[in-house]
Specification:
This protein has about 80 residues and is mostly helical. It has a domain of about 45 residues. Helix content is about 55%, strand content about 10%. The chain has 2 helices and 2 strands; from the N terminus they run H-E-E-H. The chain has a two-stranded antiparallel ribbon. Strand 1 and strand 2 form a beta hairpin. The protein is rod-shaped, with a radius of gyration of 33 Å. The N and C termini lie far apart (about 105 Å).
């Protein structure tokens, strides 16, 4: 092999490697960890913020009332 063809082959291989690397990096996106948060895209500042207001402490008040009524009814039926 001549030195010129070897040099061309190495140049083509380097260009192909760089292009493959660019394709892989651009297709996978990037994640950044900032202050304990994983930010999935560079556009996180433009994303809509979802706000969920605080709800009641006890999530099942109707179920608790139904159980209390059932226990009271059972107690009444035992007498």
């Amino acid at each position: 092999m001549s030195q010129k063809s070897t040099k061309q082959r190495m140049t083509r291989l380097a260009v192909a490697t760089v292009l493959t690397g660019i394709c892989v990096i651009s297709s996978t996106g990037c994640q950044v960890s900032l202050n304990g948060q994983t930010l999935p895209s560079p556009y996180y500042l433009q994303d809509d913020i979802q706000y969920f207001p605080a709800g009641p402490e006890f999530k099942l008040p109707r179920e608790a009332a139904a159980l209390k009524a059932a226990k009271a009814e059972e107690k009444m039926n035992r007498r």
